[in-house]
Amino acid sequence: MTVLLVNVLTYVFMHLRVIIPDLEYLVVSEMYGIHRICKQQQSYRVLREKRIPPWMEVALIPMTGKPSLYPGLFLFTTPCRLVRPVQNLELGREELIGTMEQIFMNVAIFEDEVLAGVTTHQELFPHSLLSVIANFIPFSDHNQSPRNMYQCQMGKQTMGFPLLTYQARSDNKLYRLQTPQSPLVRPYMYDYYDMDNYPIGTNAIVAVISYTGYDMEDAMIVNKASWERGFAHGSVYKSEFIDLSEKIKQGDDSLVFGVKPGDPRILQKLDDDGLPFIGAQLQYGDPYYSYLNLNTGESFVMYY
C-alpha cells in the first residue's frame, strides 16, 4: 500500500511502487499547496499519464480544526481495491475513484445539481446512487422501501450460479442452482454487468387468489410437476480436508495415503493413492479413504 501523509507532524510512509514526480519526498509543516498537488495528481490519473496509474486513489483529507479523520494526502496503489467510475466535469472524462476519496468529493447525480466551483464530478447514470444488488431489482420505484432493502439483503444469499470453475475450487462450501434461467423482466444494469453468465434465479409464476377467504400468511403451494422437473433444485459442494498428522498417536509414526494390496475392505472403490476415483459417487458405507502406517505396515480404511 502506498500511503503518503502530509501534515504538521512529520510522518512520511514511503513504500512507493510507482515513482511520482514532486512527491517522492514531500514533508511540509502546513497544508498550504496540498489542494493544488492533489488536483494535479488527479488530473494525471484521468489523462492516463504514465507517471500516475489510472487506478491509484488520491484522497485528500483537509484540516478542519474539528474532530475528524487524520488530515493529510493519502495515495493508494494496492490491488483489489473497490473503485467505481464517475465523470470528471473539468476534464470531461471518466475517472475511477476509491472509497476513501469519494467521501470528500462533491459528486452530483443530475445536471441541475452541479454547482460551479463546488461540484467536481457527476454520476454516469442516475441509478449509480444505488448498489449493484439494488440495480437488479426490476421496477424498484414501485416497491415499498422495506421490500427493496429486504431484497438487497436476500439477493446476496440466494442460491444461484456464482462461478464456472466448480471442479477447480477448494471453498469450504459452495451452492449451485441446477436450473438457472434468464429473467423475463430485467433492469438495464442486469445486462450491463452480463449477469446472464452468472444467473441468480429461476422464473416463477406466482398466482394470488384473494377472494377464497383462505390465508396462509407467508406460505405458498408449489406445483408438484414443476418441482419434479427440477424447479429450485440445487447442489452443495463441500470440501473436506484430511490431515494425517492429526491421526499420529506416537511421535515416530509415519502415515501416508495408500492402499494395501488385496485388502478386501476396498472392493475397487479407492485408487492407488488411497482416495476415491475422480468423479466417483459414494454411497453410505463406501470406503472413503485409506492410509498406511509405514512403521507397522498396518492399513486403515475410513468409510463415508
Radius of gyration: 29 Å
Number of strands: 11
Q: What is the percentage of strand-forming residues?
A: 15-25%
Please summarize the sheet with the most strands: 4 strands, mixed
User: Helical amount among residues, as a percent range?
Assistant: 10-25%
Low-confidence stretches: 1-32
Can you tell me the number of structural domains?
3
Mean pLDDT: 79
- Apparent shape: flat
N/C terminus separation: 46 Å
Question: Structural class of the secondary structure composition?
Answer: alpha+beta
Order of helices and strands: HEEEEEEHEHHEEEE
Strand order of the largest sheet: 4-3-6-5
Number of helical elements: 4
Which keywords apply here?
alpha+beta, OB fold (Dihydrolipoamide Acetyltransferase, E2P), four-stranded mixed β-sheet, 4 helices, 11% helix
Question: What is the gist of this entry?
Answer:
It contains 4 helices and 11 strands.
Description:
- Its EC number is 2.7.7.6.
- Pfam families: RNA_pol_Rpa2_4 (PF06883), RNA_pol_Rpb2_6 (PF00562).
- Residues 35-84 form the DNA-directed RNA polymerase I subunit RPA2 domain.
- InterPro entries: DNA-dir_RNA_pol_su2, DNA-dir_RNAP_su2_dom, DNA-dir_RNAP_su2_hyb_sf, RNA_pol_RPB2_OB-fold, Rpa2_dom_4.
- This is DNA-directed RNA polymerase.
- With 304 residues, the protein is an alpha+beta fold.
- The protein has 3 domains: 34-129, no CATH class; 158-238, no CATH class; 240-304, OB fold (Dihydrolipoamide Acetyltransferase, E2P), CATH 2.40.50.150.
- The protein contains 4 helices and 11 strands, in the order αββββββαβααββββ.
- The protein has a 4-stranded mixed sheet with strand order 4-3-6-5, with no helix packed on it. A 3-stranded antiparallel sheet has the order 9-10-11, with no helix packed on it.
- The chain is flat.
- The model is unreliable at 1-32 (pLDDT under 50).
